[in-house]
Amino acid sequence: MKTIVHTTQQVYRQLINASSRPGHTENISEEVKNYSDFSDAALLAAMTLFDNEISFFSKDKTMRKELKVLTGGIPNKDHTTADFIISKAADLKKKYFREVMKGILISPEKSATLIIDLNSIGEGTEYSLTGPGIKDETNIKLSLDSSWMELRNEVCKEFPLGIDLVLTDKQNNLVIIPRTTKAEVK
Amino acid sequence: MSQNFAFLDEHSKKEIRRKTLKAIAVPGYQVPFASRELPIARGWGTGGLQLTLSLIGREDILKVIDQGSDESVNAVNIRNLVQNTTGVAETIHTSEATLIQSRHRIPEVPLKPFQILVLQVPQPEPLRAVESSERKTKMLHGDKEYSGAFIKLFEQIMKFGHITDDADYPVMVNDRYVMAPSPIPRFDNPKMNYNEGLILLGAGREKKIHAVPPYTKVESLAFEDYPFEVEDFDDKVCRESGLSGVYMDELQDEKTGETYYVTNDTSYMLEKLNEEAVQHAGK
């Protein structure tokens, strides 16, 4: 019997693989009842990590409701204090990068994680990734405009402060770009 | 009484999982976590055990070692607990395992991509010997102020003519954080540098999780005129297997009083002995 316990465990291991190997693509094939218009991968990543101890910000009303019901996570009215921001690439705003929590020097973990649902991982702007978790260099195409990546680089330039990106797409691919990764347009 | 898969309740797992992902995002930084009660006492591998329980799934193949041995009490009991609550397969072979929990050794067989090594950490704070306040050590890490870590090594050189830290020798991770690698022998420190698997470190009593992602620079602290050196076993040969160039235990024959050496990583020794036996039989 497959329960949510096994589903989230499976997704978590994929999150571990993706975050310890930035640019490595994991395909989330677990099944989930999804009433939002976000990808299953985005919903499952959130379901794996959210509970009543965290707050999240989403502009999407359906997703907000969905996550609150499914995980008990606390919907935040304000993006600046949320532990997680969940947004579609089309709905991104500059303030989701600039004004969110990026940790403090004694506690860099008190930072926001952005879950961004893209159209495609594997198509779009090609980025070259280097840093911990990457042997030499990884190239990856993302349908994420380079202006967002520039903003992300700006926020992450003062390591260990920064934000971590969880990117998902319509085919339920998932890529994680933690703050240690240097991302440049190829 | 029925038990949740992998013992811990899902809320505890979620918390550990969130913290572990943060630890991977900031290599070498100690992320505080809640550290739940377990059926074994804190300080007996509960940090490692909680990481293992948060990670493990039905398809995993688990290896648990204690000081290089799959068969010591600590290793057996931890493996039994995990197996009884998950039903996963076990192995002693490093290359077959998907998840390895270890106390104080990194196996001789190098980690492969996507393997996870979980280390049990008694004292995660490399600056604790020079600064007892947690608030202050957090600030020192924040400022990358590591004079204290170097002074500790310097004082050992002044007193004894060489660095005396044998296990838990401090390392610099990703040129940013000084990290306690858990009491692995110095011999194992270089294995962490740009290794291919993921290393997660859990301190249950001290409530900290830290991580070394794959392909990450891990440098042992040293001085230009006193470079880092590993334990030297060059002229030693394992009495049981004839292996050399591995980490060895120094033992004494109770009858003759003679000092001899045995490979510490017992599963590695067994693999080598079996290979030899097969070759021998082939001839």
TrEMBL record, chain A:
<dbReference type="InterPro" id="IPR038058">
    <property type="entry name" value="PhnH-like_sp"/>
</dbReference>
<dbReference type="InterPro" id="IPR008772">
    <property type="entry name" value="Phosphonate_metab_PhnH"/>
</dbReference>
<protein>
    <submittedName>
        <fullName>Alpha-D-ribose 1-methylphosphonate 5-triphosphate synthase subunit PhnH</fullName>
        <ecNumber>2.7.8.37</ecNumber>
    </submittedName>
</protein>
<dbReference type="GO" id="GO:0019634">
    <property type="term" value="P:organic phosphonate metabolic process"/>
</dbReference>
<dbReference type="GO" id="GO:0061693">
    <property type="term" value="F:alpha-D-ribose 1-methylphosphonate 5-triphosphate synthase activity"/>
</dbReference>
<keyword id="KW-0808">Transferase</keyword>
<dbReference type="Pfam" id="PF05845">
    <property type="entry name" value="PhnH"/>
</dbReference>
TrEMBL record, chain B:
<dbReference type="InterPro" id="IPR010306">
    <property type="entry name" value="PhnJ"/>
</dbReference>
<protein>
    <submittedName>
        <fullName>Alpha-D-ribose 1-methylphosphonate 5-phosphate C-P lyase</fullName>
        <ecNumber>4.7.1.1</ecNumber>
    </submittedName>
</protein>
<dbReference type="GO" id="GO:0019700">
    <property type="term" value="P:organic phosphonate catabolic process"/>
</dbReference>
<dbReference type="GO" id="GO:0051539">
    <property type="term" value="F:4 iron, 4 sulfur cluster binding"/>
</dbReference>
<keyword id="KW-0456">Lyase</keyword>
<dbReference type="Pfam" id="PF06007">
    <property type="entry name" value="PhnJ"/>
</dbReference>
<dbReference type="GO" id="GO:0098848">
    <property type="term" value="F:alpha-D-ribose 1-methylphosphonate 5-phosphate C-P-lyase activity"/>
</dbReference>
